[in-house]
């Protein structure tokens, strides 16, 4: 009876050691996954920050370009009015002759 209990305890010990080994392997695998996910998250945050900076830069460039377009449209309008006045003056001068 004692031998049977010893054999049973040896089997339970062997099984427990296998379970411990399996759990240690799982811990190692999970720690590796955590490290990979952490690196991926850090890289994603870095890319996100870079994209935000690029977006701000592009928005600044867009505002500058829109301001320049508005300025050029105003200049164009002013020049068109001057041209119309010059044409009107020329027409008036030609009709006087």
UniProtKB/TrEMBL annotation:
For this protein, the record's Pfam families field holds:
LRRFIP
SUPFAM superfamilies xref list: Myosin rod fragments (SSF90257)
Q: Which organism is it from?
A: Chloropsis hardwickii
Please give the name of this protein. Leucine-rich repeat flightless-interacting protein 2
Task: List this protein's GO terms for biological process.
Answer: regulation of DNA-templated transcription; Wnt signaling pathway
What family, per the record? Answer: Belongs to the LRRFIP family.
Keyword annotations from UniProtKB, A to Z: Coiled coil, Wnt signaling pathway
Give a yes or no for keyword Coiled coil in this entry. Answer: yes
List the coiled-coil residues.
Answer: 6-89
**Top-level taxon of the source organism:** Eukaryota
């Amino acid at each position: 009876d004692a031998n049977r209990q010893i054999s049973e305890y040896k089997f339970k010990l062997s099984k427990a050691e296998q379970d411990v080994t399996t759990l240690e392997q799982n811990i190692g695998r999970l720690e590796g996954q955590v490290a990979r996910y952490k690196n991926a998250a850090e890289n994603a945050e870095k890319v996100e920050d870079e994209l935000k900076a690029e977006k701000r830069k592009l928005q600044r460039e867009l505002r500058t370009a829109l301001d320049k377009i508005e300025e050029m449209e105003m200049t164009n309008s002013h020049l068109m009015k001057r041209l119309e006045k010059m044409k009107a003056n020329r027409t008036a001068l030609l009709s006087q002759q």
